[in-house]
Amino acid sequence: NELGKGVTSAVREAVRQGKTSFVLRSDICLRESAGKGRGWFTTTDLPAGTLLLVEKPVASCMDCEMYRYKWGNLGSADSAALTVAVSSRTHKPGVLSIIRLMHPSEAVPDKDDSEEDRDEEEQAEHEKMQADMQQAWRQSAAHPSEWDRLSSVIRLNSIGFYTNNEHVMGFKERYRACTGSGVYGLACGFNHSCRPNVARFCIGDAAFFRTNQPVPAGSELYMSYIESELHSAPKSIRSEALARDFTCSCVACEAEELTDADKGYLDVDVQFQAELKTCPSQQRIDILQGALKGKVEGVKVNVLGKDAQELRCMLAAAHEELGQLDKALRAWAQALSWAAEHLPPFDEMIVSFAVQAAIVASRSGGVVIAKRWWRIAQEIHEVAFGGGRLHFELRYKGEVESQRPGGAQGFSMGDVPVAEQAPRPWAVVAEEIGLVARAA
After folding, report:
1. What is the dihedral of CA 191, 192, 197, 198, to 10 degrees?
2. What own/partner pairs with CB < 8 Å and gap ≥ 24 does 391-397 have?
3. Percent of the chain having pLDDT more than 90?
4. How far apart are CA 39 and CA 43, in angstroms?
């Protein structure tokens, strides 16, 4: 339709000018989606692991750039910093024409922008943030009548990029500097679902979009705007995390009643984790095991699946510190069982958990179990990321080397052959994960 043609032609003009770049499959198209505006659809049957789109952003802002602002730690700082970055690029050919074509058609108030929740210092930072955005727009090529709407466009269409963010160990040390957010001219056409059939990963600010399951011809292609670990959370939690100008009407949300979000959930935030790390390993284990059973300091708590996964990762690490490798392996196996049941098919986090289980099993001498986890990790990786064995080994080399002390027994990454075959159905892979987890 005309809307799809307009976006595509605008992006092509930007490419001609050398301002953006992308690779797009020829058998997917952007067209009207009932009740959702526009969306990407496939015109042919697509197997799991199909690469749909690789795209660089029209404009982006690294987190390290955001933190240079006095207001860089505010909750809405990422979209504000991106707004400043985009507005400064509107004089470049193609940028403004792409942004103007994006949803929404009018300004949308920020649901999280509430004065009541700010103290005096935060209010001053917020006012400074607003002033910086206004100054950026004044220096842009956009007309003043567009500023509020374009600010909403940037906020609601921004996509975060994180290199190797599924890594359980070492992400902050090795890849945190590659984190940021951007506006993508084509990727913004993927609508949201809590049961997505498209997953994404990033290398720097280049975003890769791949199917995570077979998609029949004529179907719409959906990505998720929230973390995959939140898909198992109550509808109210998912809606709160989504924080968009629409109500999700996916299959999962339509089948579930909306309930009160406040159920006394344990807040496994940065402060909670930092305090736990100061405790001796055994004390930390006791606290983590109690939390996973629903009690902290004798008080009953509910734990979201997402946070329970964080606790299991910390539990496994604590057991490893004490040399309790069998118990650490059980913690990773529990994380894998939950992930296989609740995360989208072939989710990137399952690869990382399987790698950790393989490392620990190898260190404890359980080479047979280690090789099974390693094969599962490779198989899921091929659907989630592609690139074959070389990409897999490069992606996890740092994780393996950092956790294999000198002289550790086991196998090297090259010891496990890769089966040259099409990926098995997800139900088959998930069943094997359950079997190997129980064996661990």
Report:
1. 70
2. 395/164, 396/167, 396/355
3. 67
4. 13
Confidence of residue 93 (pLDDT cuts 50, 70, 90): confident
User: Could you tell me if 218 and 41 are in contact, meaning their C-beta atoms sit under 8 angstroms apart?
Assistant: yes
Name residues whose C-beta falls within 8 Å of residue 340's C-beta, 6 or more positions apart in sequence: 350, 429, 430, 433, 434, 437
Task: Provide mean pLDDT across the span 84-99.
Answer: 91
Nearest to 403 by CA among 74, 201, 169: 169
Q: CA–CA distance from 88 to each of 73, 81, 96, 128 (Å)?
A: 21, 11, 10, 18
- CA proximity to 292, closest of 255, 318, 324, 262: 318
Q: Report the alpha-carbon distance of residue 194 to residue 230 in Å, rounded.
A: 9
Separation of alpha carbons 426 and 435, rounded Å:
14
The confidence band for 3, taking pLDDT boundaries of 50, 70 and 90, is: very low
Query: What is the DSSP secondary-structure string of 345-391?
Result: TT-HHHHHHHHHHHHHHHHTT-HHHHHHHHHHHHHHHHHHT-SHHHH
Q: How many helices (H) and strands (E) does the chain have?
A: 17, 13
Cβ–Cβ < 8 Å for 433, 337: yes
Rg (CA), the chain: 23
∠291-297-303 over CA atoms, to 5°?
Answer: 25
Model confidence over 113-148: pLDDT tens digits? 666 678 889 999 999 999 999 999 999 999 999 999
Note the pTM of the prediction, 2 decimals: 0.90
Say what the pLDDT of residue 397 is. Answer: 84
**Predicted confidence band at 284 (pLDDT cuts at 50, 70, 90)?**
very high
Say if residues 397 and 414 touch (Cβ distance below 8 Å): no
Which pairs with CB-CB distance under 8 Å and at least 24 residues apart come from 134-142?
Answer: 136/83, 136/84, 136/87, 136/88, 137/87, 139/87, 139/88, 140/87, 140/88, 140/90, 140/91, 140/96, 141/90, 141/91, 141/96, 142/87, 142/90, 142/96
**Mean pLDDT of the residues in the chain:** 88
Reply yes or no on whether the pLDDT at 239 is more than 60. Answer: yes
Burial of 261-287, coded b for 16+ CB within 10 Å and e otherwise, reads eeeebbebeeebeeebeeeeeeebbeb
pLDDT at position 52 over 80:
yes
Residue 234 in tokens: 């109550």
Residues facing 300 on adjacent strands: 295
The number of residues in the chain equals: 440
